[in-house]
Amino acid sequence: MSNLQPTGVPAQKQPLLSDDWAYILPMAVFLGITYLGATWPQYFAASYVVKTVLTAAVLLVLRKQYTRIAWHYWWLGAMLGVVSIMQWIALDKGVLAIWPNYPRVTGEPFNPFTAIHNRAWLYTFLAVRWMGPTLVVPFMEEFFWRDFAWRSIIAPNDFHLADIGEWDWKAFAIVTLLFASVHQQWITAIVWGATIAWLLYFTRSLGTCIIMHAVANFLLGAYVLHTGDWQYW
Fold it and tell me: Using 50, 70 and 90 to split pLDDT, how confident is the model at 105?
């Protein structure tokens, strides 16, 4: 059977989801399984692997519906990734360490070396736990926060009408605060979110934001594995 319309023009394949849902679904999958892992902590390691794999799969399946990524100024993203994670740890352990009401991890943080006894499963989890935030989370979060959410605030009827990195005070403030709201260290997250929001506006490059996010998460993983400061994982 021919795949041509009566005019002779090839029929375009319909997307699996609306563009709005293509951006929302990976975040929904990630946060939903995160909630399950927190509710049943005995399955935390398994839930983390599952949510990382499923989120990556959703991003790959829906990849054609996302904004085409530009990578100019990637070097600036890499530099700010280093600076921003140093800021995060230094601020959290410095000024905020003496703030009595600042939220901190309650209970004993998940330590994979004591919680996982099978060596193969331990190293599988560690690899996913380190590489997931480096290779999957930056795409998921930057597509959602600095692409979809930012542009939706500017053009709520159709986010495509707003440009990548188009300046808007409401978008800057709302996206930064909402981003911080899903992180326990919310003050450091506000500083971090404001930095990457400035980077988006300055470069108009989603890829640069992904690089900054990936470098920061990679270095945070290195810090955790080196120091055993599991509260950051």
Answer: low
